[in-house]
Amino acid sequence: MTPTTVAATGARAATPKRALPWLMHPAAKPLIFVLCLLPLAWLVYGIFGNTLGANPAEKLIRATGDWTLRILCITLAVTPVRTLFKQPALARMRRMLGLFAFFYGCVHFLCYSWLDMGLVWADIVRDISKRPFILVGTSALVLMTPLALTSFNRAIKAMGAARWQFLHRAVYAVALLGLLHFFWMRAAKSNFNEVAVYAAIIAVLLGWRLFQRISRRSTRRVNPR
Amino acid sequence: MHFLTDRGFNHPNASEITPRRAYDSRRDVLKLLATGAAGATMAAWAGREARAQATRPGKLAALPAARSALAGGVTMEKLTPYADLTSYNNFYEFGTDKGDPAQNAHTLKTRPWTVAVEGEVKKPKVFDIDELLKLSPMEERVYRLRCVEGWSMVVPWVGYSLAELIKRVEPTGNAKFVEFVTLADPKIMPFVGSRVLEWPYIEGLRIDEAMHPLTLLAFGLYGEVLPNQSGAPVRAVVPWKYGFKSGKSIVKIRFTDKQPATSWVKSASQEYGFYSNVNPGVDHPRWSQATERRIGEDGLLAKKRATLPFNGYEPQVGQLYAGMDLKKFY
User: Fold this and answer.
1) Which residues pair with B180 in a beta bridge?
2) pLDDT value at residue B317
3) Are the Cβ atoms of A55 and B88 closer than 8 angstroms?
4) Closest chain B residue to A129 measured between Cα atoms?
């Protein structure tokens, strides 16, 4: 098993030697769970407290999209941070974070299809075909769905680690599609400052993986067995 | 020979149809009038009508106005709250986010301010803003505002018909178009220089559109001078066109024989046409224009309302476009 699959199988990874004590604390995971729910709680409070500004529907759609991308970035950061800072206990959090990214993506789509499209499916289909950036966003969500559906331990066992890992590499495509979705949405106003921040973060996270791959391969070539 | 083609019945706006109760009570009104005692009641009633509809928020200097008597000049729809009008703006010179103008536009200095009126006119002149304010009596006009992005508001503007100004400068026979040049001062406007548009922001109208009495030169809203983020100290308001046609913080009005090269047409001509009349039948290439969300009124889960041709001003302005293919001249 590669380190990644060990991580994926979750909490029962090998006992960490230098883990921060709080990462292994029984409350650590529930704490992160609650933290991930805070943005949603803040938005729900905003609906009833009327703090979402002049166009609450637009605010909800945009904020849930922002949080999908943010939590996706955090999920993708787990493996690099775990490796670089030698914190294997972090792997316990990865599945939950990934599922939260999917959750916010679903809420984002629900907000769009309900608040913007009035849940009229014919309109939604027409809109998706008319607006490429919405097609890209929808594709990202569709692509995330099988990952969420195969996120539990028995699915990993049933699929076999190698196949499961292959499928779950789709998360890299999801990140790129999500970024393109955001870029395209902002392109109308040529307002790319925020997009650039996400692009830089995702470039570092995916670049690190690419670098690992290349250096592993070249090490193998230098020391053939 | 030129024939007037029958273009069918122009539907009035629902808001302009006399309510049944008012219609039924017309005889009561006559009876009241007939009795001498009614005099005082009628005076009070007439006075109420003449007063502006919007209550002042009390934030800026008052700009008193009498309610407009122009057809289509006052819609009876619910006004968009002042707080929403002044916190949700497209004024790219101060930032492309809709909250940006309210945050950044405090740097705008509206005195001293001049508006140069030039080009194909017999009497070109540089007007001081205080002179413009006194040029013609102020009217309150309550207009629907439909943004090309798919949202709408109802705004109690204060101003007078642009035609009042145009008449005074006497356009020549070559004046076919009017161009509005707006302020572009990078010292106070952080986004002037950003690549999103060419600066200064330029908009324009055909001369007959500019002369239409509904086309407003606005100096205020809600009974007060314009807040900076709404285009102080003077702006255009063309209620049957998408909002971006109504230039803010105008510094120059030029009369030309050629169609002005307007900012959005230069930036994306396949998406924004020179006319840009509100038209639910012509979609923006990237989204539908069939519906709109009324800011501050429609609930979160309310279905979006249908957008009306010419933003509901077809009875007043439809004839300006008789015989034109509105799909071609979008």
Assistant:
1) B203, B253
2) 97
3) yes
4) B286
Contact B84 A54 (CB under 8 A): yes
Q: Lowest-confidence range among B26-40, B165-179, B200-214?
A: B26-40
B196: tokens are: 């999103």
For chain B, what percent of residues have pLDDT higher than 70? 84
Query: Residue B244 above 70 pLDDT?
Result: yes
Name the residue among B196, B296, B303 with its Cβ closest to that of A189. B196
Whether residues A191 and B97 touch (CB distance < 8 A) is answered with yes
State which residue of chain B sits closest to A127, comparing Cα positions.
B287
What does the alpha-carbon distance between residue A53 and residue B262 come to, in Å, rounded to a whole number? 31
For residue range A147-175, list pLDDT tens digits in order. Answer: 999 999 999 999 999 999 999 999 999 99
Q: Which two tokens stand for residue A111?
A: 């907000």
Whether the pLDDT of residue B248 is over 70: the answer is yes
CA-nearest of B93, B104, B227, B101 to B157 is: B227
**Predicted pLDDT of residue A8:** 44
Any chain B CB within 8 A of the CB of A53?
Answer: yes
Could you tell me if B270 lies within 8 Å of chain A, comparing CB atoms?
Answer: no
- State whether B196 and A191 contact (CB < 8 Å): yes
The H-or-E segment that residue B221 falls in is strand B216-221
A49 in reach of chain B (CB within 8 A): no
- The DSSP 8-state label assigned to residue B12 in this structure reads P
Do A190 and B196 make contact, defined as CB atoms within 8 angstroms? yes
Q: What is the largest CA-CA distance in chain B?
A: 69
CATH code for the structural domain at B14-321: 3.90.420.10
Residue B110's Cβ-count burial label (10 Å; 0-12, 13-18, 19+) is middle
Pairwise CB contact (< 8 Å): A47 & B194: no
Mutation site, B289, B295, B297, B305, interface A, largest A CB count within 10 A: B295
- Distance between CA atoms of residues B308 and B290, nearest Å: 8
Q: What share of chain A is helix, strand, coil (3-state, %, to 5)?
A: 80, 0, 20
Contact across the interface for B286 and A131, Cβ inside 8 Å: yes
Q: Considering only A32-41, A209-218, B7-16, B313-322, which range has the smallest mean pLDDT? A: B7-16
| Alpha helices for B135-220 (secondary structure H) | 162-169, 207-211
B92: nearest CA partner in chain A: A189
Report how far residue B36's alpha carbon sits from residue A124's, in angstroms, rounded to the nearest whole number.
Answer: 63
Q: What pLDDT shows up at residue A24?
A: 84
Which residue ranges make up each domain of chain A? 3-222
Complex ipTM: 0.77
CA distance A10 to B199: 56
Greatest C-alpha distance within chain A: 66
A146 CA: distance to closest CA in chain B (Å): 29
Question: Which residues 37-76 of B are in CB contact (within 8 Å) with A?
Answer: none
For chain B, the structural domain boundaries read 14-321
Mean pLDDT within B243-255: 98
